[in-house]
Design goal:
heterodimer, A: 191 residues, alpha/beta, Rossmann fold, nine-stranded mixed beta sheet, B: 315 residues, GMP Synthetase, Chain A, domain 3, five-stranded parallel beta sheet, four-stranded mixed beta sheet, 18% strand, globular
Chain lengths: 191, 315
């Protein structure tokens, strides 16, 4: 059974991420972001998901031990919302308060056809959002994968490492291809 | 995938292990507390006492129906009418978080009194994931304090048991079907009841208004569903706004309250879309509410907000 843990940055939908993984037969647990890397990984882990959280935490705070996880991990990491913003900032990119925050339903446009995280997801699809901040400058080594009308970096991925960031929320019911994205991430972790 | 049969079996075994003595369940008659009561009843039988509190903010005939259900389920139960106490406590309260906290605390005080009288050591609650998620904690902001989380005192004497903590409503419904409970498809109703459907002071008079309006919304939508005119929404109700508007009632000026109709679709309450109810049904609801409530209500509006950015209930 593939093992993917969720790091809780205080998001409303952290537990929903755990549920989606569990429903897809992943061995999963939620850890608060204060848990040291060594303890999270002591029995081995195949992937980690960094959850969202309150406004500005992806921009200002250290976000618990997320930095340590990003530095030490030799397995895939998926950052969602604040987790995505923190990932960008940690690797030298830039995240800021959004000029136009997005809440609820929006249309996502894929900019890249062959990204493994979006396999089976059409060029245009409905995703749900809940963000006050966003990534405005990509970190070195990353590429842009998707955008929306009001947010130009909805998804990013490292060019040759399994590091992914999503501004939207694939874990909620209303995101059309959310489960597909989770399945793809699981497949990436299984490799 | 969530396996209801396995969950029932494991939880009953765990509860037998965990509960050693008398236990009390806070029983509202909704899906969560009824499933919880059925599970604990299977585990410890007559050691379980179900307590239903009529807060005065229940829907039309609701508490009487809950009493009948407790009888039908052969639960060992207590029925407590605390409506006067609740109305007094909320007399001058307008702030939604204050309302929720007062109601939550009052529930616990009533349960503690019963526990002391009957020497009960365990409090069982049907708390589910969205309740504690939205109530907030060290990591999370408070969106709204759910009555079963936000009102709990730090030094509670009873030991708390919450077997459904990690589940969402769709999973609890699966359990209800597995346990063959008649309430499996019942729409959610908030613990603080109609008090959070009255913006501003939840006085007995305003409670009667919204109780009737909620009854009309429920009856009309259920009729329309039965006729095949629409599908059953996730949750559907009315909200009383503190906004007065002008109307004309039989050549006479009227100046009354505004009522909002809210109906949403969801799977787990964590995200929702507003229901696309056929216009004719909305019109029927609007006419029936204004005709039944006379000059007290002069305007009806329909809420078209998803969650996020909105929440399901208005407070």
């Amino acid at each position: 059974m593939v093992k993917i843990y969720v790091i809780d940055n205080g998001g409303q939908w952290t537990h929903r991420e755990w549920r989606t993984l569990r429903d897809l037969n992943v061995e999963t647990r939620i850890f608060p972001n204060t848990k040291p890397f060594g303890e999270i990984t002591k029995d081995g882990v195949d992937g980690i998901l960094l959850s969202g959280g309150s406004p500005r935490i992806g921009l200002e705070s250290a976000l618990g031990n997320c930095a340590e996880i990003l530095d030490k991990a030799d397995f895939p990491i998926l950052g969602i919302c604040a987790g995505h913003q923190f990932m960008a900032r940690h690797f030298g990119g830039c995240a800021e308060p959004s000029k136009i925050p997005e809440f609820g339903k929006i249309e996502l446009t894929l900019l890249v056809e062959d990204n493994e995280l979006f396999e089976g997801v059409p060029k245009k699809s409905i995703v749900w959002e809940s963000h006050n901040d966003e990534v405005v400058g990509l970190p070195k080594g990353f590429k842009k994968i998707a955008e929306s009308e009001n947010c130009k970096i909805q998804a990013m991925a490292h060019k040759n490492k399994p590091l992914y960031g999503l501004q939207f929320h694939p874990e909620v019911e209303n995101t059309e291809y959310g489960e597909q994205i989770f399945k793809n991430f699981i497949k990436i972790c299984e490799k | 995938m969530f396996n209801a049969e396995k969950f029932v079996k494991n939880t009953i075994a765990e509860l037998k292990e965990k509960i050693d003595g008398k236990a009390m369940i806070a029983f509202s008659g909704g899906v969560d507390s009824t499933v919880c009561a059925a599970l604990v009843n299977k585990a410890i039988g007559k050691q379980l006492i179900a307590v239903h509190v009529d807060t005065g903010y229940m829907r039309k005939n609701e508490s009487r129906n809950v009493e009948k259900m407790m009888k039908d389920m052969r639960l060992n139960y207590r029925f407590i009418d605390a409506s006067k106490e609740y109305y007094d406590a909320l007399k001058d309260v307008e702030d939604p978080e204050k309302k929720r906290k007062i109601i939550g605390e009052k529930f616990i005080r009533i349960f503690e009194k019963e526990a002391e009288k009957e020497k009960i050591e365990y409090l069982i609650q049907g708390t589910i994931a969205p309740d504690w998620i939205e109530s907030g904690d060290d990591l999370r902001d408070t969106i709204k304090s759910h009555h079963n989380v936000g009102g709990l005192p730090k030094n509670m004497k009873m030991k708390l048991v919450e077997p459904l903590r990690d589940l969402y409503k769709d999973e609890v419904r699966k359990l209800a079907r597995e346990l063959k409970l008649s309430i499996s498809e019942r729409q959610p109703f908030p613990g603080p009841g109609l008090a959070v459907r009255i913006m501003g002071k939840a006085t007995p008079e305003r409670t009667e208004l919204i109780r009737e309006a909620c009854f009309i919304v429920e009856e009309e939508i259920e009729k329309a569903v039965e006729k095949g005119l629409m599908k059953m929404p996730w949750q559907y109700f009315a909200v009383l706004l503190p906004v007065k508007t002008v109307g004309v009632h039989g050549d006479k000026r009227a100046y009354g309250d505004t009522i909002a109709i809210r109906s949403v679709e969801s799977i787990d309450a964590m995200t929702c879309t507003y229901s696309k109810i056929p216009q004719e049904i909305l019109e029927k609801i609007s006419i029936r509410i204004t005709n039944s409530l006379g000059s007290k209500v002069t305007r009806i509006v329909y809420d078209i907000t998803n969650k996020p950015p909105g929440t399901v209930e208005w407070e």
